[in-house]
Amino acid sequence: MKINGNEIKPGNVLQHQDTLWAVVKTEHVKPGKGGAFAQVEMKNLIDGRKLNERFRSADKVERVRLEQRDFQYLYPQDDMLVFMNTESYEQIELQSDFVGERAAFLQDGMMVTLELHEERPIGITLPQYVTLEITEADAVVKGQTQSSSYKPAMLENGVRVMVPPFITAGERIVVDTELVEYVKRAD
Fold it and tell me: How many angstroms separate the Cα of 30 from the Cα of each of 10, 27, 56, 81?
């Protein structure tokens, strides 16, 4: 779908220079001399490059709609992660780098949302919260609460998070997968 340069908004995905770009920020500028334009900051969805581009209102850009589908995480295989489409039961393998550091939070049977463009995976969304067990937690030092009320702890998936002093090894906690931080004790 073609849109005018002045209709570009943050969050849009554009086809520009033969690749896909996510719009991060837009600023509408009206210089004293000449026509108005939109200064657009974009991030490449394929390789992560950033680009600042000016679009005049007369410029036409191709806006792309990404398809979102639910997939279930099955298992890791070498440096690949295997997911299954819950509707067609088709399996797809993705590089662990595609998920990045958040791959540590993947659990068997976990539902994720993949963003696809022409059947090609562009992005992945994990559930915002996961419940994990603490395997080791530092002991509380008396008087420590004055300086810092959180202590480091190791989760069962090998990720370190800061937790309140009352949390001990063996307890289950809820962790935010986006910020990688403690939310609350699990029920």
Answer: 19, 10, 11, 48
| Alpha helices (runs of H) in the chain, residue ranges in sequence order | 96-99
SS3 sequence, 142-186? CCHHHCCCCEEEEECCCCEEEECCCCCCCCEEEEECCCCEEEEEC
Residue whose structure tokens are 């696809």? 116
d(C-alpha 71, C-alpha 109), whole Å: 9
For 37-90, what is each residue's pLDDT tens digit? 989 998 888 777 888 989 888 889 888 888 889 999 999 888 889 999 988 989
Instruction: Record the pTM.
Output: 0.70
